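Summary for the steering committee. The consortium agreed at its last meeting that each partner would contribute one worked example illustrating the joint modelling workflow. Our contribution is presented below. We chose a case with several input lines so that the handling of multiple components could be demonstrated. No manual editing was applied between input and output; the record is shown as generated.
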Amino acid sequence: MPEIRNYTLNFGPQHPAAHGVLRLVLEMDGEVIERADPHIGLLHRATEKLAESKPYLQSVPYMDRLDYMSMMCNEHAYVRAIEKLVGTKVPVRAQYIRTMFDEITRILNHLLWLGTHALDVGAMTMFLYCFREREDLMDCYEAVTGARLHAAYYRPGGVYRDLPDQMPNHEYNEFRSKADIDRMNEVRQGSLLDFISAFTDRFPGKVDEYETLLTDNRIWKQRTVGIGVVSPERAQQLGFTGPMIRGSGFAWDLRKKQTYAAYDQVEFDIPVGQNGDCYDRYLVRIEELRQSNRIVKQCVEWLRANPGPVIAEDHKIAAPSRADVRGDMESLIHHFKLFTEGFCPPAGEVYTAVEAPKGEFGCYVISDGANKPYRLKLRAPGFAHLSAMNEMVEGHMLADVVAIIGTMDIVFGEIDR
Amino acid sequence: MDSLISLWEWLGENLIIIQILIKIVLIVAPLMLCVAYFTYAERKIIGYMQVRIGPNRVGPKGWLQPIADAVKLMFKEIVIPSGANKTLFLIAPMLTLGPALAAWAVIPFSDGLVLADINAALLYVIALTSVGVYGVLIAGWASNSKYAFLGAMRSAAQIVSYEIAMGFALVGVLVAAGSLNLGDIVRAQQGQAGFLDWFWLPLMPLFLIYFISGVAETNRAPFDVAEGESEIVAGFHVEYSGMPFAVFFLGEYANMILISALTALFFLGGWLSPFHGFPVIGPALEWVPGMVWFFLKVMFVGFFYLWLRATFPRYRYDQIMRLGWKVFIPITIVWIAVVGLAVVLEMPWWFD
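What follows is the complete predicted structure of the assembly.
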């Protein structure tokens, strides 16, 4: 009698649905998963260790590269840690700008999640629809920082610069007709705020479009309802945060529970699911798109009405303006000191967290009084979610593994760090 | 011209094999061209559905893209994985393409315009489309890859179950038309009410089930679990490259066109004009050759393949089984009974 063994399937790291470099070793009984063993570390870049050998300011761009789909939220957690350590006050306008860009980032992230999740489940068109809107938001990133992904926009004490008054236009080229380009430039005639405002007006309609394709689609429901169910209690035990725990019906959102930036000044609701399955998490994220849009709208209104400084006046922490550096001796010294030695926060340790699109993104910084952190520990939401992989996929089929990887919204930049 | 016709007749009398070969070439060459441009149409149509442009670089408006693809695939290295069964590995793609082409032998392009006007044409078609699954199975097994093997297993189960639903749907057509000859089936749909006379109306459930089973049979979205690029990467042809891959690809698209053509023949009146018997428009379009109508109908059905692909998420493997066995097969059986009754009672105006 031959011995009957389960067979193991090596899922990834070059698998199209592995969302980067996930390697899952699946033990399968036919199509049914017996055990899933995620192997991580293929994108390990030693961010935490690198930060120990650099002045605080120079680690900001590393944060972009952690969860490379929610860049500014990661920066936000890091600069908040430094601000807390040093005790800097951030100007209100900067708080609003951060709130607005955090939410733009959330929309960016959720759009990518929606596109790839749907693509994993087989709905190809969603991917391209979502990228159409992402394009506009990345233009916002570009207008304000010059970079479309890795912004490096937040600074301890505020943001790098104020929002531009002029939105860059598309140039005429041989690939598109003049009428097309004029149409694309129509919304780009005013300032960045006008552009974002126009986006928030049309975006709910686009979300409706996505919902028409998926929400009531029988196949979509068959593929997501009842898949990867996590009870609220178990979700807490597993350390879930963000849409993953809200999908299980637990209204946990740091923006409300431990409010920061200008989140206490804007109105928004926290959507929660009921069953804790993939479909509920999908609905939660779709509603978050609408809520984020609402927050962005409120921020735009406030920012239009209230000009002001966007970075702290304390030049021990925040760089003086370019013009001052050229003309003013003291500013020049500040500038030189800031970009060579950096600043030395008092010894101590802080933990700050933000509600990143994927969940709680936290920064734990220990300072020994030097110009570099003694230790930087990052709490990535995806890591906790991925740890629950085995539990969530057990007894499901191979196709569901893909749906569950999708619903976790994992990005390896943050998991492997 | 006269001498050509007499040569043709001479060939028919003395060297019939040459005459048949010429006919085969006359069918297969345009068919392959159709397959190539079907891929182009797919990329363009899905492209526009997905707010992008699709291929537009090779040649004017991208018209040469399929040619460029073919040339590229021909020059690529054929990688045979270690541990693969070389013979079976190379036979598999041919087993997929072969039946897809052979089935065209009995397809009437117009009244009487058919390579082999046999009376068991329907059975022949069912038999040949079933053979196609062996290509997939053998490819999955011979690749010596777990992904390919999973794909082959899925495909085998799927095609076998949908074969039954498809077969039952065709039994309905058979009852309604009273013949296994494809030409006779089309002629049975002729009437004075144009497209209202065709079988799609009285056999509506069977028509839908036949088409959907056809989509499943050809492993196309939303039933593409055998390929399932996001689950098992490319399924049975994950290890293929170069020309063997191209042959698989051709086979898949030739199958799609075949199913479209069969749907057009069984339910959409084959070469018949949709406006036959209508006042004004009927006589006005009488000059259009039947082949053109047939071609238009095939394209119409083919378009649905692309539309489905751009719209739906993918079914899970067990859900496909459920749909096939628990939904389609019962519906077809019930509708066969309904059609049987309608034929026996000579229900107007299709069966009187």
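Chain B has a mean pLDDT of 84. The radius of gyration of chain B is 21 Å.
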